[in-house]
């Protein structure tokens, strides 16, 4: 009788584990705009979450001119009644909340809720010169969105608040380091090279003359927020090709960082060269780990896979070196991220 009970228990556990493994999440998607009235900043936000709803096939639109491949989602799908870890994503300068859907797709299917947002004034279709250099305000964007997500009666109740992680690419990498507790020194140093602060290709054309070093709006914003954006609700940070390393010179700027930080970059990155960025951050952040891809891997490899149209019209951000398979780099990066968050959240 005792042996029979043991066998039945083992079978029940086996079936339970098998059913759990067979649970296949699809991707639910909701769009919302939060408005931070204190800073007059609308924040377009995308919420991606696990769902068991079935995907309804849509007719493909003809003549779509997409730069990057898209993913299949179910708008306004239902979310299972359970608790999920949360990932917050910050895009690169001049990017947008859809820039890292390759990353979002995998994380949601693995059981994460993912929230991505457009940073006001520094996104693809909303470019304001001053916002391109008020880097620290991006962290406040993330904080504001996080607060609103957790207060949301539908999504917020499904979040495991002890398991919140941050992810960022390029300037979004810096954004996450700021959220972790690092603060940037925006003053120009005597030995600093001018090319370190060249405006990115995404910087908007403007006839306005702005003294970026002394502009009152930029300076007052920096003085108010520079070292007040650490967010202890976020427990771990995964950053890809982080930027703004030229503004980090001393460990005093990162000594408030206690959460684990994982840095990924390519040795062939000419936009944010690893010596002054990824490796510099790793040297200054005591809780960091780093993984570097080889010398052929550049900066924009961490964007979505391109379409043929994208390669034609925007080769600088869609075409990698011949020996680099962007999909393969994505897969390796995702494994690093999943292992990291599994051990830290």
Topology, pairings included?
Blueprint lengths: L1 H21 L3 E11 L4 E11 L22 E2 L8 E7 L10 H9 L3 E5 L4 E2 L2 E2 L9 H15 L7 E11 L1 H10 L35 H10 L10 E5 L20 E6 L11 H7 L3 E6 L14 H6 L1 H4 L7 H19 L1
Parallel strand pairs: 1-3, 4-5, 4-8, 8-9, 9-10, 10-11
Antiparallel strand pairs: 1-2, 2-5, 6-7
Helix pairs in contact: 3-4
Notable traits:
11 strands, 20% strand, two-stranded antiparallel sheet, 29% helix, alpha/beta, globular, nine-stranded mixed beta sheet, 345 residues
What does this structure look like?
By secondary structure, the protein is of the alpha/beta class. The chain contains nine helices and eleven strands. It has helices at 2-22, 101-109, 137-151, 171-180, 216-225, 278-284, 308-313, 315-318, 326-344, and strands at residues 26-36, 41-51, 74-75, 84-90, 113-117, 122-123, 126-127, 159-169, 236-240, 261-266, 288-293. The strands form two sheets. It has a nine-stranded mixed sheet, sandwiched between helices. Helix 3 packs across helix 4. The longest helix is centred in the first third of the chain and has 21 residues, at 2-22. Mean pLDDT is 90; it is low at 4-21.
Strand portion, in percent? 15-25%
Which structural class do the helices and strands define?
Answer: alpha/beta
**Whole-angstrom Rg:** 21 Å
What are the low-pLDDT stretches, counting only 5+ consecutive residues below 50?
Answer: 4-21
């Amino acid at each position: 009788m005792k042996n029979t009970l043991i066998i039945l228990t083992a079978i029940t556990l086996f079936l339970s584990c098998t059913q759990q493994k067979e649970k296949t999440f699809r991707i639910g998607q909701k769009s919302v705009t939060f408005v931070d009235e204190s800073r007059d900043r609308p924040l377009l936000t995308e919420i991606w979450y696990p769902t068991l709803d079935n995907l309804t096939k849509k007719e493909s639109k003809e003549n779509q001119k997409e730069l990057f491949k898209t993913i299949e989602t179910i708008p306004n799908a239902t979310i299972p009644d359970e608790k999920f870890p949360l990932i917050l994503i910050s895009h690169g300068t001049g990017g947008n909340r859809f820039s890292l859907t390759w990353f979002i797709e995998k994380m949601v299917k693995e059981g994460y809720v993912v929230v991505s947002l457009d940073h006001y004034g520094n996104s693809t279709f909303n470019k304001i010169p001053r916002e391109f250099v008020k880097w620290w305000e991006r962290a406040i964007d993330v904080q504001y969105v996080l607060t609103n997500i957790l207060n949301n009666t539908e999504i917020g109740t499904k979040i495991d608040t002890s398991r919140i992680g941050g992810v960022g690419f390029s300037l979004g990498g810096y954004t996450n380091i700021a959220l972790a507790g690092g603060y940037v020194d925006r003053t120009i140093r005597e030995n600093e090279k001018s090319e370190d602060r060249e405006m990115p290709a995404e910087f908007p054309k403007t006839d306005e003359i702005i003294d970026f070093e002394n502009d009152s709006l930029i300076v007052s914003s920096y003085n108010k927020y520079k070292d007040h954006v650490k967010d202890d609700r976020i427990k771990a940070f995964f950053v890809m090709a982080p930027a703004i390393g030229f503004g980090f010179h001393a460990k005093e700027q990162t000594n408030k960082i206690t959460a684990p930080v994982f840095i990924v970059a390519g040795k062939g990155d000419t936009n944010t060269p690893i010596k002054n960025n990824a490796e510099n951050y790793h040297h200054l952040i005591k809780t960091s780990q780093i993984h570097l891809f080889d010398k052929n891997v550049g900066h924009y490899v961490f964007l979505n896979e391109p379409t043929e149209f994208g390669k034609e019209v925007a080769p600088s951000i869609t075409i990698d070196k011949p020996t680099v398979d962007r999909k393969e780099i994505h897969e390796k990066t995702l494994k690093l991220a999943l292992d990291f968050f599994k051990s830290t959240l």
